[in-house]
Amino acid sequence: MDNFRSGFVTIVGRSNVGKSTLLNRIIGEKISIISNKPQTTRFNLKLIYNSLDSQIIFLDTPGIQKPKNKLGEFMLKQAVDSIKGVDLVLYMVDSNSELGELDNFTIETLSKINLPKICIINKVDKISDVDIEHLISVYKNKNIFDKIIPISAINGSNVYNLIHEIKMFLPYGPKYYSDDMITDQTEREIVAEIIREKALNNLRDEIPHGINVIIETFSVRKDKPIIDIEATICVERKSHKGMVIGKNGDMILKIGKHSRIDIEKFLDSKVNLKLFVKIDDDWRNKSFKVKEFGYFKK
Known about the structure:
By secondary structure, the chain is of the alpha/beta class. It is built from nine helices and nine strands.
């Protein structure tokens, strides 16, 4: 094990640049939920990559956004705190050549941190080679990145090279987790996130940010290889409850069907899933509710 490398790597960036898509590809399992809605990832999540010569513990973080409520404040703190105590920082951007206020804020924050940094330019499958070279030049001129690597997380282009470069920045060290462990999340937490993802992807833009999912029961039947799961989808307004349920229950059935397919694949078992909806009025602006739903514990 003398040549074995291990360490902690955080990945930061704006919402929707593809952080979770990249990590799911690297790990080879769908653990981080994916949606085209901002603020999909709400707390720091460890994902563990194992190979013969290394173990990389990735921290998937909430996208950096200006907080609009108590949940937003928590998410920003999670993203910023993830930079502390790691061996390497990955800063992910997409193929958009315009640097906004949040990009400049993040780059300024990273410039004050004495850690190696790799800038990952994602979604390069959507732009020309000339545009890729332009973007590399833009971030090279910031003078804070040790490497700048263009990739496409969606199709895997140059991801193998990225993993190799990450390893080179890690110290020689022990395995922190067993080979069969790929995340620090429990099965219940992953199931809740799968359900939230299906709600995010099926509902209109104005609803999903206020959705939270609580797993009420999770049990294996004694007489059959079936897992019974009951989950509550919490929304912030009465009108949202009706939208989640849908006309004649169509939407809740759709969310349930799509969720069950992914949950059965994840748990490798038949699943009997029951979903309920309740109103937790304006919970994202209430500190005690944010804590009750488990975010501050993360």
